[in-house]
Amino acid sequence: MGFGDLKSPAGLRVLNDFLADKSYIEGYVPSQADIVVFEAIAAPPPADLFHALRWYNHIKSYEKQKASLPGVKKALGKYGPADVEDTTGAATDSKDDDDIDLFGSDDEEESEEAKKLREERLAQYESKKSKKPAVVAKSSILLDVKPWDDETDMAKLEECVRSIQADGLVWGSSKLVPVGYGIKKLQIQCVVEDDKVGTDMLEERITAFEDYVQSMDVAAFNKI
Fold first, then answer.
1. Residue 116 to residue 108: CA distance in whole angstroms
2. Crossing angle for the helix pair 32-39 and 50-60, nearest 10 degrees?
3. Where are the alpha helices (DSSP H) in 71-216?
4. Residues 74-97, mean pLDDT to the nearest whole number
């Protein structure tokens, strides 16, 4: 896991690809993970890496509040895509592997106790390698929620939308987008677990606030 060298063009390209369908390094709000990666970048990403540049400028706006952002800072190599080698932790990983003596010593015949210990460690090692976390299918959805008119209380509308709670549903960032004639729609992002929350359920729950909501549309839908 990692981004590689974020001071190099290759590292920035990895970061840009990573952020193509994500707003933040971890989770759905700015956190210490974003600060760690931000501080590892020497300069703003070039304009053609627009996902990374958008994220960089957004996190830069939190400079005065960065100490108060949630989360605990970890090593840079703990963040990023899983298929990029984390060279920052190579020495530690090597040490951990060295602690497991899979084959014992060839200098002298193994005692029964040493043989038993070696077999136990081998079994633990194989068990550790075979365990893989279950993959949970998730999607990032951008919703357009339209009010009835320009007199609709948009703060209350957003409050109603965010009041919808369900297992596998996490609300993210939002903004108001002008649609004409003084009317603004709420554009809000959420992340859902596919087998628990669907767009039909979201539309049904959101449009139930009929005093504020005229309609709901899916503006963007991306698998994570």
1. 16
2. 110
3. 90-98, 112-130, 154-162, 199-207
4. 60
Distance CA 144, CA 219 (A): 6
Structure token digits, residue 102: 């899979």
pLDDT score recorded for residue 90: 42
Confidence class of residue 109 from pLDDT cuts 50, 70 and 90? Answer: low
Distance of CA 73 to the CA centre of its chain: 15
161 token code pair: 């939308």
Map out the domains of the chain with their CATH numbers.
9-78 (no CATH), 138-223 (3.30.70.60)
Cα 149 from chain centroid (whole Å): 35
Q: What is the dihedral of CA 214, 220, 221, 223, to 10 degrees?
A: -150
Q: Which helix (H) or strand (E) holds 192?
A: strand 183-193
Interval 166-189 mean pLDDT = 95
Both tokens of 32, joined, read: 């210490």
How far is the first Cα of the chain from the last one, in angstroms, to the nearest whole number? 17
3-state class percentages of the chain: helix first, strand second, coil last, to nearest 5: 40, 20, 40
pLDDT at 116: 81
CA 87 – CA 177 distance, rounded (Å): 43
Q: Is the pLDDT of residue 101 over 60?
A: no
Confidence of residue 123 (pLDDT cuts 50, 70, 90): confident
pLDDT-derived band at 97 (thresholds 50, 70, 90) equals very low
d(CA 138, CA 197): 10
